[in-house]
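ARCHIVE CARD
CATEGORY: sequence design from structure
SOURCE FIELD: tokenized fold
FIELD CONTENT:
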């Protein structure tokens, strides 16, 4: 009867971001499993491919580049490897070797996944309009695919433009991002219940 007098706790985006960091680990692990287990079923003849350094067909230089900065990746280099190489070169003044490049690519992939999880956690903080869950997570993953994979990354020249990849490649990357987001949302939802907010 006096429910309208009961004050709802305010959303805590800081707590959401911290839980989102952990959820980002879950989502990134799930995305890795997508590339290993699901992607080969969808494209069995081309092998798996992802932004964490997986092998793709060797693109030709300047193929469908839409970036005003020009091509910022090497032929056959993933966007995460290209970003890792640029960061490494900016800090050390050197070009990384093959093993270092692979480690940098993996680091960028994990860092992006975990920080995206923190963003999702802050946006879907407890008691917000869109609470964390597999559906909101999947929608977030799809938005990441559109904004980053199809937009920002090609505009920065870290990968070729959308026309360089077949439709199946775009759908496969969308699937990986949706898989990531659903696992992120589920992980964050579970963490929120295991670690309830205290007043």
């Amino acid at each position: 009867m006096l429910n309208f007098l009961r004050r709802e706790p305010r959303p805590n985006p800081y707590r959401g971001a911290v839980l989102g960091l952990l959820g980002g680990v879950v989502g990134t692990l799930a995305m890795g499993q997508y590339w290993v287990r699901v992607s080969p079923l969808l494209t069995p003849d081309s092998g798996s491919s992802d932004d964490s350094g997986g092998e793709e067909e060797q693109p030709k230089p300047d193929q469908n580049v839409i970036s005003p900065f020009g091509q910022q990746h090497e032929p056959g280099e993933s966007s995460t490897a290209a970003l890792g190489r640029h960061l490494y070169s900016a800090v050390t003044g050197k070009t990384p070797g093959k093993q270092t490049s692979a480690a940098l690519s993996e680091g960028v992939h994990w860092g992006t996944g975990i920080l995206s999880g923190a963003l999702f956690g802050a946006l879907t903080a407890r008691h917000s309009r869109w609470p964390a869950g597999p559906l909101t997570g999947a929608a977030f993953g799809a938005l990441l695919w559109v904004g980053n994979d199809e937009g920002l990354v090609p505009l920065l020249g870290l990968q070729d433009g959308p026309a360089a990849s077949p439709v199946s490649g775009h759908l496969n990357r969308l699937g990986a991002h949706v898989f990531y987001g659903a696992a992120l949302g589920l992980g964050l939802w579970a963490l929120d219940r295991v670690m309830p907010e205290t007043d």
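CARD ANNOTATION: The chain is about 60% helix and 0% strand. The mean pLDDT is 86.
SHELF: design records, drawer C
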